[in-house]
């Protein structure tokens, strides 16, 4: 037989497979209806084991592994389909629909915004880029920003989540699980760090530099090249500049911004002390309620996965089959639990598409922990 004839045989088999597959999915729809009416869960591990044992027996030793893989895929597809059928009644689908319909309104220009740090901070710069008329409230730590939004003290909050040179702001990710909030926008801010000191101080006088951990990480090469200078961590780059301005010492400098040099009447000893010029920090803007503004094209979710081989792979394949591009995947240990992890995903997707909402509902129905963090657009 030549390849053409061999393929004809295969095409006939494929046809029968597709017919049987659609027949199986129709049967699944009937099972789903029964499960909804009788409040049965979609997943039935015992039934899956039973089916797999039977499949192994029928397929024989040579094909057993392949047949089991095929049936595990069939279970995944049938559970996806059942979760999709369930999503019509899902609270999440209704909330998303309400948030997208209700907010034909534009992103506000005026708002009360909670920021970490003090006057002149990078959070403030990001905030002023995001809102034309913000009223800022400064807090000492990230947790207080989450709390101010959660308690309704501020309508919005701004938090740094990652930097192109120093990576993820882990402290913010660790707080996400503890607080109720929604991401309504994200913003990328170009960061140029400068070395600031009091007027008349020269670089050779400097014995100590103060700054935030992230800024210190972003300027590691400059600091390594000057090992004689002691480095001290500070809660915020703007607070570090303020500290230098208020100190009487002439051997102290801060890694901070040009804005802070002006604000705190300091001199710039050296400009652009970060390792690379393409230094960007991404901030998220959060609110208490789910608000989805027109143009939203990114989605963030938080979830935990069962300790089972292939569970992350199965999840990733769902994104891949919808052609969705993952832009961030971060895993963090669950505090108080041994080796259990929370996963944070950012991906590009339109919340206005039914297939996206179906995927979110499917994840919510099938995972023990799933939080929809929001759908939003990013400002550059
Ligand atoms: O039998 C069921 O309860 C089904 O939902 C069908 C099915 C399957 O595809 O065979 C799907 C999910 C369950 O975990 C077990 C089996």
From TrEMBL:
Residues of the Chorismate mutase domain: 1-86
Subcellular location: Cytoplasm
SUPFAM superfamilies in alphabetical order: ACT-like, Chorismate mutase II, Periplasmic binding protein-like II
Pfam family, any one: PDT
Enzymatic reactions: prephenate + H(+) = 3-phenylpyruvate + CO2 + H2O; chorismate = prephenate
Gene3D superfamilies to which the protein is assigned, alphabetical: 3.30.70.260, Chorismate mutase (1.20.59.10), Periplasmic binding protein-like II (3.40.190.10)
Protein's GO biological process: chorismate metabolic process; L-phenylalanine biosynthetic process
Protein's UniProt name: Bifunctional chorismate mutase/prephenate dehydratase
Species name: Pelotomaculum schinkii
């Amino acid at each position: 037989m030549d390849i053409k004839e061999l393929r004809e045989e295969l095409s006939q088999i494929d046809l029968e497979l597709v017919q049987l597959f659609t027949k199986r999915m129709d049967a699944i729809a009937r099972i789903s209806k029964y499960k909804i009416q009788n409040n049965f869960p979609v997943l039935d591990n015992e039934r899956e084991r039973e089916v797999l044992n039977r499949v192994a027996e029928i397929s024989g030793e040579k094909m057993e592994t392949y047949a089991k893989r095929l049936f595990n895929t069939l279970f995944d597809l049938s559970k996806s389909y059942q979760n999709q059928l369930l999503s019509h009644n899902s609270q999440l689908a209704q909330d998303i629909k309400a948030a997208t319909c209700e907010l034909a309104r534009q992103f506000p220009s005026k708002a009360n915004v909670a920021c970490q740090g003090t006057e002149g901070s990078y959070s403030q710069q990001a905030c002023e880029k995001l809102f034309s008329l913000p009223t800022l409230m400064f807090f000492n730590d990230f947790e207080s920003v989450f709390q101010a939004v959660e308690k309704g003290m501020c309508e919005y909050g701004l938090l740094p989540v990652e930097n192109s040179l120093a990576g993820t702001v882990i402290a913010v990710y660790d707080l996400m699980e503890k607080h109720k909030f929604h991401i309504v926008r994200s913003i990328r801010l170009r960061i140029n760090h400068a070395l600031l000191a009091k007027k008349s101080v020269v670089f050779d006088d400097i014995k100590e530099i103060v700054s935030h951990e992230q800024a210190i990480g972003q300027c590691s090469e400059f600091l390594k090249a000057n090992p004689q200078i002691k480095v001290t961590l500070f809660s915020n780059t703007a607070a570090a500049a303020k500290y230098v301005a208020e100190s009487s010492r002439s051997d102290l400098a801060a890694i901070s911004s040009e804005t802070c040099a002006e604000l705190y009447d300091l001199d710039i000893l050296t400009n652009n002390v970060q390792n690379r010029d393409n230094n960007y920090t991404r901030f998220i803007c959060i609110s208490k309620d789910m608000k989805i503004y027109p143009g939203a094209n990114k989605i963030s979710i938080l979830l935990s996965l069962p300790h089972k081989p292939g569970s992350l792979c199965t999840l990733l394949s769902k994104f891949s089959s919808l052609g969705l591009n993952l832009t961030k995947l971060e895993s963090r240990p669950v505090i108080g639990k041994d080796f259990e992890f929370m996963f944070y995903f950012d991906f590009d997707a339109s919340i206005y598409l039914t297939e996206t909402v179906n995927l979110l509902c499917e994840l919510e129905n099938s995972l023990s922990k799933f939080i929809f963090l929001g759908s939003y657009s990013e400002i550059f």
